[in-house]
Write a structure and sequence with these properties.
321 residues, 10 strands, single chain
Amino acid sequence: MNKMNYLIILLTLFILNCSSDKSTDASDPDPVPDGIVNIDYVASNLDFPNPDRGFYRYSETRASNYSVLDKDELKAYRTPTFSQGANYKTIGTIVFRYYILDEFVNAPISGEFLDNMQLDFKAARDAGVKLIPRFTYTVSSNSGNCPEGFICPPYGDASKEVILGHIEQFGPILTNNADVITCLQLGFIGTWGENYYTDFFGDSSSNDDQRKLLDENWQDRIEVLKSFLAATPKELMIQVRYPQMKQRYVYGINAKTNVAALTEAEAFTELDKARIGFHNDCLFASADDFGTYEDYGNSSSVRKTDITNLKPYFKEDVVGK
């Protein structure tokens, strides 16, 4: 075979290969790769279950009398339902879950309790909802002869050592079920897990002459939050009750109330600063939302209400400037 014939054969094969069915139709401006399906969404005014958004439903259980979540009840929240006392319907995909650890104030968490928690998460997953867990040791406000009157010490929460042990136990089950957790709340410290009326972390109420938090109190609280952050997945956020808790965690126990809020560039970076958010248990309850916008002081500073700095910080840290 001479060189000319050989070149003709190669050219013919090249042309045939380029014109085979493997070529892309030039008339298709945006070819879809094999296995990929395009879905065109259409705007709708219908109500629908929006994951991780909207009103949450309340639920609680006690270690002394555990009641496992019911899948069918949770599933019903995803359909338009009247809430008690309301004349409108809501659709819910989030359930707040209070875990009241009344049997474990001085003891490790039992295997039975952890197994029941796993059943809760399974029910949530099967129902298509997510949970907001908060752990607390007491939700009782025992009245008596004390300055506050309606709630008097001892309050009934647990020591730092007990809490840190419990966080270590909760870590694996929270990690394994992160897909059905909207966020976590710090809890643990004080009545209702609100970090206020507490036997071990500094009583800043009028029931105690201290009436503020000392450096050691902040250090103990920071240690609990740090442990909870370390024990749980970095994609999960942890809400704290007071803006000053985040400020003193991020900037130190001498942090002022006018420190910089989280920036857009820092959000979702999985840094501790990005993972700490807020819950406001007393929204609209008073001018300062019952102590939400309070500077609780430290060993070298006084306690004072500071709505001027803390309210804008709260807003900017959550939604940005």
